[in-house]
Amino acid sequence: MIDADRITAEAFRLFEQEKYSACLDLIQSIPPRSIDTRIRILEAICLYSVGSLDEAEVCLRDLRSKVPDSSEVCLYLGKVLERKGDEGARAEFAEAVRLAPDQTEGIRRYARYLTGAGDHRAALCLLKRLVLLTGKGEDIAGLMLCYSALGFFEEGIARYKKAGAPDECFRIYLNLLLASEKFQELADEIEKSPNKDDHDLIILSCESLVHINSDKADQEFLIQLRKNPSAELASHYARYLESQGLIREALGVWSTWLAKSENPAYQLQGASLIETVSGPEQALELYSQVLFGKDIHEHLNLNIWLSSFRRLLVETRGSTVALDEALTRIRPDLQPSILVGIAEWCEEERRHEDAKRLFLQAFRSDLTNSGFSYAQYLGRNSEKREQKKILGYILKTIRKARDLEMIAGKILTLPEPEPDLISFLNQRFEGYVSLLSQEGRELYARCLSMETKHELQAGSPDKALKHALTGLSVVPVDASSVAELLFALLVESKTQVLPDFLPSQICPVTKPPGSVSTTGQISFSWLDPGEGAVVEYLRKHRVCNEMDLRKVAGTRRVAGLMNRIMRKSEEHGIHLADKEGCSEFGEVYRYAGP
């Protein structure tokens, strides 16, 4: 007879020794009836630790329904989803912190996730609380980085000094001094540092000298570049020389250390220098080589480089010939943003056939950014119906919260977005509420305020009231102007509804005996009862195969039923399920809805 208690104790011992595979083998030898929740959690953590992410997710999803108040389960489910690139990690980390608001590991992991996602506004309050709870240098460093990303440089410096200048935060502190233009203080701090010969500190030291003593900076750059040659240091030196009007010297530095770099930013740093010294033809050749080469990737400066390329081409060839030459460089695998740039050039020259062809080519490669650029082109050329169709397609096709936020921000820049487009955008937002960043929630609130106005103008104050209340529930605390607008619209909506009244008798709503609570369920009224039962089962278990769903659906034709559910959901702007492939038990489906 197997001694389950002894095996359990041994499993925990192996886990503490980080022998996760051995621990899993031991857990699998325990009789199923003897496996309690603690062992199941241990099994899930071991599966995560050995990289069996799919199995770990299934295990944790099951535990999530059995022990919904376990912050540990939520935390590890968040970790699993994060490693799989699933945005649902955000909701799980948030739930872990909600269940255990003083549990530092959960707060730290959630804050780290938000920072990695670029949502520094949301991470800030978490990091403040974390520092309050732990006072650790690594947590103070995270808070200082957050301050830096938000542009709160003085707050970051003050936090460093208040914490007693922890070593883990020193480099962040130096960067904050540079950002706040405290150059003398920066130079003094580097001079006192025992690590002043470190590469990053050398660059910061040279940058501070540029503003304190320009002549000394020139000498220091040269000395350090000979001692510790690097492309980054050479780039700083070349920029310094160019700012001093020493163009030939800057070109010499670029030619020696940067011209053969694989980084397009370093390569094209020499373009303006070459143009000044050797003329536009040589600069144009460099732009052509880099921008239309096979290794160019998306870059923040791509539009600036393309604009310079266009200017040089027009100066040397003339407007018409320049555009013809640019069109000859088009390839099927060209970066979408370059295609969009040349398409806009074609539009300016009234060559709409070429413009539309290039916009469509970019749209096929990049649904969101290039798709929106194409929609803008259609709007500028009075093709409003086609513009609305393209924007609707983009919104319907988007699968990630970040993409939805990005396209929503772009739609709100349009002169007068159509009411039904804003309404559809709000429907899409509704399915992603728990995954939205602070910026995303503010965008959602703005869209709801717009729909509230539309409903008031259409004479539907009841609907307007609902949208205003929803907007107030999602608007971030720091978006005060949006909140004030929503509140004003809420008051206006209430004044247009029937006069306020109180019912003569307020009776508490009581559930009939034996009724089952539906808390946590989501109702999709456009599904029939059988489809609704399948969706709820899939939502609970997250990943199911055909054999699982046959019992719930009461039919063997699960594939057809799932196709019907997915089609209906797409028609309503919601993505409910994905096909994950095929197993020995038939098609495998993963829940992907709210």
UniProtKB/TrEMBL annotation:
Protein name, as recorded: Tetratricopeptide repeat protein
Source organism (scientific name): Methanospirillum lacunae
